[in-house]
Amino acid sequence: MFTRNTQLILRCLPKHNLVRDSTRLLPTLGHFQTFRPYSSQNNEFGRGEPSPKRNRGRDYYPPESFSRSKTPANTIIKFVPQQEAWIVERMGKFNRILEPGLAILVPFIDSIKYVQSLKELAVEIPTQSAITQDNVTLELDGVLYYKVVDAYKASYGVEDAHFSVSQLAQTTMRAEIGQMTLDTTLAERNALNHNIVSAINAAAESWGIKCLRYEIRDIHPPTNVVEAMHSQVSAERSKRAHILESEGLRQSAINVAQGEKESKILQSEAEQLQQINRAKGEAEAIILTARAEAAAITNVAKAMAESTNGVDAASLHVAQQYVEAFGRLAKESNTLIIPANSGDVSSMVAQALTIFNKVKSSTAQAPPKPSS
């Protein structure tokens, strides 16, 4: 309990400064490592911590800055909890760091000055404004996860390591947002979180604090920007719909043209095959006709050679063909050049036989071809 001198000092202090001044004058009593104004009444944040609804004035600090453990009372024997580091000062000078387990202190000489939790801590970063590279004001908030890796630096490297790292997270987030456009901020949130963690670790290394990760929870653009984004999305969807429709029409036209092309190709191939088949048929017909005529001529010649009346038969045949030809000419309206004596059939037959005899005699006088 209080000594006599301590009681005299407390009686001399004003009542409204009793808690604040007694905490400053009595380092051996339980107190925070860095003093901040607080309410002595209980609230939802725990005993002795400020209520955000009640303390919103000049002395208000976020509740996360009070999340540190209180320094225990100085006794000879102490038990340090797991995942905590206690800073011991001897006559106002750093002496050692107590690790979890049993610890023995020298009364009135050793004092537990700071208590650092080595667990991972989560700090809620309040909503703040930030301006992007394309001059859009955003409202952002997030959560910072960090832990104390060096209790000595966290106690003596900065006045309030926990409060400082939360403020550093806010300023770093504003600085990183200022280097990115709105579209990049919304699309590359993971990259933004990584950049914030790297920047915090670079600055908080001398404080004995390591930032594990940072998560941006909500990004709130201005109302006019949100409306513009909705309009842009609608326009983009309409554009895609028109593009898809035009692509469908284009593909349909291509399919129709491709079908017509294939149809014409097949039709031309069919016509080609038809002409080839017709030509083959005509060629075969000509060959067969020629063979028939050759056979007929052979038979006529054979008959003329074997029979004494062969010449008369040939003359009769020529006369019949002549008469049939004139009969066909009478049915057609064609202008033809005919001999002057076309009406004299006997002269025409005699002329034809004369030509036949000359061809026969010339063929007989021709020398035979040498055998190969």
UniProtKB/TrEMBL annotation:
Keyword match Protein transport: no
Compartments, record wording: Mitochondrion
Signal peptide feature range: none
Listed GO CC annotations: mitochondrion; plasma membrane; side of membrane
Residue ranges of every copy of the Band domain listed in the record: 75-233
Biological processes annotated in GO: mitochondrion organization
InterPro entries: Band7/mec-2_domain, Band_7, Band_7/SPFH_dom_sf, STML2-like_C, Stomatin_HflK_fam
Keyword flag Mitochondrion: yes
Pfam families, per the entry: Band_7, Band_7_C
Domain of life: Eukaryota
Main location per the UniProt record: mitochondrion
Region Disordered, annotated ranges: 37-69
Keywords: Mitochondrion
Composition skew (Basic and acidic residues), residue ranges: 46-61
Similarity comment text for this entry: Belongs to the band 7/mec-2 family.
UniProt name for this protein: Band 7 domain-containing protein
